[in-house]
Structures
1.
Amino acid sequence: MAEEVKLLKTWSSPFGLRIVWALKLKGIHFDPIDEDLSNKSSLLLQYNPVYKKIPVLVHNGKPISESLVILEYVDETWKQNPLMPQDPYERAIARFWAKFGDDKVFLSIWSVFIKQGKDQEALQEAMENLKFLEENLKGKKFFGGEKIGYLDIALGWLANLVSLFEEIIDIKIIDKERFPLLFGWIQEFSQAPIIKESWPPHDKMLTKFQIMLQNKLKLAAAETN
Amino acid sequence: MADEVILLDFWPSMYGMRLRIALAEKGVKYENKEQDLRNKSPLLLQMNPIHKKVPVLVHNGKPVLESSIIVQYIDEVWKDKTPLLPSDPYERAQARFWVDFIDKKLYEAGRKIWTTTGEAQEEGKKEFIEVIKTLEGQMGDKPYFGGEAFGFVDLSLIPFYSWFHAFETFAKFSVAAECLNFSAWAKRCMEKESVAKSLPDEKKVLVFLTEYRKSLGIE
């Protein structure tokens, strides 16, 4: 039976991008569907009624939501080029850091960006979180070891969004001196085959986040008036 | 080599309960080390320096963190007995999705109920019932979330049941009245030895939360 793989995503979402990477790294042919989140398709509402969010992977008509859940599904369904470690303890570690990335790192970096790098507390928290990731890279080329793995994919957003934010607010977040391993990983990861060709267009991303920042600042100004 | 399994836990922790159930289902012998969260032990700080939270599973000296991650670890290590996750990848993904949903939604809604009063508490109560109803709908006619067998989603959800009496007392409502199928499912789970011996007495939880509320200056 021919396989049908659809991926509901957006052009810019780092969460959707994780699944693009995973599928491409495994050589899986899929049908990408870019959603307009201001006008959600009936397909999206049907396939993810709980959150109405992307990404959603639809495999032979059956939907899976939540990017980290989808990643593990992809890895278990298509066994070539395994992304998760084999050892249960290593798997638990990878899952922990992926969750840490989403729950703590992402929010702290976003906070630095929204406050334009001027909030010392936000910067402090982001630095502490990044230190944990730096520790994780000791003796390794990628978080997954010699090859790109689940955790590299889960943290991959760092390799794109951080430099974008740094460009907009003109503040260095991942400094080469302070985070040499993380800095090195960003270069390796972002230039790796498949990863490199999948990044969303730089200028379009820059504009998107510049507008987002401006809107947030306008909102904050309106609230204090 | 004998396995050394230690559980850093706190008796009312719903997340800790998940692990007690999982370990009991697998018949794993472990040492329970009750933690005082207001005076965190050096062991806890050493094993979970990032979040400094319970529960922590320490297996042969190595810490595993985050209850839903620990349950999967337990299932993978002690794989020859009582599988907790389904074997089919799609069913597994569904189980992981619903446990994540429970983690994201249920605790927060419950927290609003026991840490607030008035309108905020009403809102928490509405959210709470909505989450339970969504889960109830998901279960449908099946005896358990996983189908015929008690599994990952069931053991991740049933611990909250020990807090229901407290929630119902604070916000004056009844889950059983609003969600019949859910209550039937909860009773079914409580009949299992692994669940019954892992959950604290709901009256003890009410006393604990009442005191905690007082200390927070609520009511």
2.
Amino acid sequence: MRLPAGRGWWRGRALAAWVPGAAGRAPPPPPPLPGPPGARVRGAAAARRALDRLYSSAARQEKVDMSRFPAENIRNFSIIAHVDHGKSTLADRLLELTGTIDKTKNNKQVLDKLQVERERGITVKAQTASLFYNHEGKEYLLNLIDTPGHVDFSYEVSRSLSACQGVLLVVDANEGIQAQTVANFFLAFEAQLSVIPVINKIDLKNADPERVVKQIEKVFDIPSDECIKISAKLGTNVESVLQAVIERIPPPKVHRNNPLKALVFDSTFDQYRGVIANVALFDGVVAKGDKIVSAHTQKTYEVNEVGVLNPNEQPTHKLYAGQVGYLIAGMKDVTEAQIGDTLYLHKQPVEPLPGFKSAKPMVFAGMYPVDQSEYNNLKSAIEKLTLNDSSVTVHRDNSLALGAGWRLGFLGLLHMEVFNQRLEQEYNASVILTTPTVPYKAVLSSAKLIKEYREKEITIINPAQFPEKSKVSEYLEPVVLGTIITPDEYIGKIMMLCQARRAVQKNMVFIDQNRVMLKYLLPLNEIVVDFYDSLKSLSSGYASFDYEDAGYQTAELVKMDILLNGNFVEELVTIVHKDKAHTVGKAICERLKDSLPRQLFEIAIQAAIGSRIIARETVKAYRKNVLAKCYGGDITRKMKLLKRQAEGKKKLRKVGNIEVPKDAFIKVLKTQTDK
Amino acid sequence: MALPRARAGAGAWAAAAKAAQRRRRAEGAGGSPSPAARSQRAALYVHWPYCEKRCSYCNFNKYIPRGVDEAAMRSCLVTETQTLLLLSGVRRVESVFFGGGTPSLASPHTVAAVLEAVAQTAHLPADSEVTLEVNPTSAPASRLAAFGAAGVNRLSIGLQSLDDAELQLLGRTHSANDALRTLAEARGLFPGRVSVDLMLGLPAQQVGPWLRRLGDLLRRCDDHVSLYQLSLERGTALFARVQRGALPAPDPELAAEMYQEGRAALREAGFRQYEVSNFARNGALSTHNWTYWQCGQYIGVGPGAHGRFVPQGAGGLAREARIQTLEPDNWMKEVKLFGHGTRKRSSLGELELLEEVLAMGLRTDVGITHQHWQQFEPQLTLGDVFGASEAVHALLEQGLLLLDHRGLRCSWEGLAVLDSLLLTLLPRLQEAWQQKAPAPVPGG
């Protein structure tokens, strides 16, 4: 079946809607798109088109002439919002209103196709749709560039935004501005985009749009008359959003006659057609047969197909400056179409667009199959998932306790959770995910080490590589700028939490009578495990949190060893801030104590920094371990049991003379989900 | 023929028993008859599968019947005894143990009939130990005397506790007073030949009170005591109650303490801990159970009984582990049809037998003597097997295990953690066995 893992949802939905009454129908007529301006596409037609895409080649479809849309008739925009404020519902309405999709009750989060996206109400993989809309007699091309809704993906967001001239900032009329609203606003603001505030869910009983208008005025300095109040769910006032897009967002400033300059802002992988790159044309024209070059890799490709997304791929003759669409050019791997890369025509190089970076993982975790016999299945599942997500870095790793696995790098925590959840849901893989760590850095002072590493500043991912204090002038840890928005009654508790997490307060503003926005500089490693959960529980779920990358800061880092009766346990070496060493060490010792079986001698579990012991627990020796009754009938059973135990004992990892079951390591290393 | 003399009366048995004890003491110190003789000797276990009431902790093979056709059961026990004795080629039965179930619910006549069958099929010496498990409520003095007249010369009383609340928890039908009365009567009838079972590690049981009751018991008991830690067995009422949270789970720390304190108290009172759970003074060790720990042959008769013997009568060479059919009615049908109700036979390999020699032998205070080991494994000495192992050496260093001129045995501390020691010793034995040169062809 021709369903690329990354893009199939849309078609899947359309297909599902069509199939029940479909048997025996006449072959589908040619697709009517884009048709007369503003035309509604019938559901069956859309579905048939989808089916057509599944079973026949794109060539059968009538190609669309995009030259009809000069830059001044184009608007490129995104919708940005806090989780659950209604971004996807608004997108659904806009797609319906412009006839891009049929108006049915089933249009829910049409652009969010992953199970995890719809479960969590988030967008992980950006989706794009070109809307054709007739306004005051003019035919407009409105490109809705959907963005991932979370700052873990802030780089992707920023690349998507760089293809836009404006954004719809959606805020829930009941909940008001939340942390993610702020983070998203500033991303748009920094990109100098027009911001159209949209207050959604005005139909709710507790909606207070006036209050939200005031918050927006206070926090974002946007005049109150610019807010559009809508109910995306009911469709109330959504039409005026489209009008605002046309009136308030400027057309892209581009030149059709300049050489091609196209931004790659997303890419997916189709196992039959290779990489499908989503592009925004800043200058020029691109058509099938053109030879193009990637500014990043300098590789040359021949374009096989171009088109627009509605939101399925709809081939067109060409794409013109200011337009947004897709391009297929024989790229075999998503790393060949990296987000932020610039494409240009062969022998007509252009200045690459600014802001390109390779994905930079910020959170690392070990991933191991629960059972080593599952290694190959897990490997193939990870490979398939990373085909569509080049931001996950994968390094093979080997743990004495957990066996063969990988060390994976993620953009952030949500990214990690989503990846794990997709592995479980889409590939039915069950994994051991170790407690996440962050990439620390060390500035080396030892000439010998600098020579060895060939650089002065090194990144430490594996704690075993942590260089000694004497060879280092300073250690650095990644920090983030966190935004917390909360009802004021929780300020005290939240401040205590932040203090405990070594956070430095940067700002505190009342955004209305009883809501406060706090800004903190937080070490990333302090939030990677359970910060968000703690924040949610101490604020009864009312506080919201978001963060953005804020570089590195000097930190007094130490390497903490775990010892069992004086023997180092390799897999439990941890890098920790000096002030946290005791707490972390104690927690590890306690978890080990609970999971180490008794042995014939006492086991001292110690956490140590250098030669200094900072925490200790003891597992007492067995005092009695012998079957009480052992006569005729008990012997067979007893021997069986003993032999099974002896067999199991052979498989245990030995630390000194202490036998440590795999479970004990898992309990210590695994992310603690329930606190 | 020995039996008529043996059944002549309690007095004759008492005399015979004294002689038996002297012999046993000599054996315990390491003297063993030749291997040839060993294959012609066996202990006999007879299982009476019925009980009046289900005890809350017991997962043994027992049944609470509406009515027992004792004549049929008796006849089947007799038949199977004869069949299996002939099959084994055993010439001499050195002990008989009537266990259950509640064998004291059976009539003395049944006990006598089985003993007679043994004496008719093989030699049952006058000094053979004949033990009957006794439940305090089903054993008035007159009945105990009748069992004595039938040939029983040793009683094992399932006293379990001297606390009425605990007895109730265990689902026993007797009170502490019942138990003490039965104990006194038994001692009167079988002086020096009465054992009592006492449990430890019950839910909510505390060390102090338990020790005081052990003290009470030591002032009234005879020369043999068994201390058993309660093990919660799946499928029992007690297990279910603990699972449900209706009862606290027994605390293994407290049980360990009771065990240690109990051992010490018994030692103080002059008892020798000759096995993990068994204590005797004045040489009153149980010959029958000693056979299990020394890996002697034993024949199991009755529903669900286990046996281990070489079926020489059928030309067998290797020792077999045998299990009789569990359910009494089915077992009886089979006995009537085939003369026995053996449900499962499996040959024990040489290594398997050695593993049992090791695991069982170390339960005793003498452990495994060099002579004892040599009877089962003439090629590899204990030193060959365990002497060079680092892991074993660590256990010796820790003082948990001893390997010297007498043999291999647990220390006082080691005995309490034997199951942990075996996890090192068994793999070592397997390793040594695999490395050993192939055995010379028998008779070659």
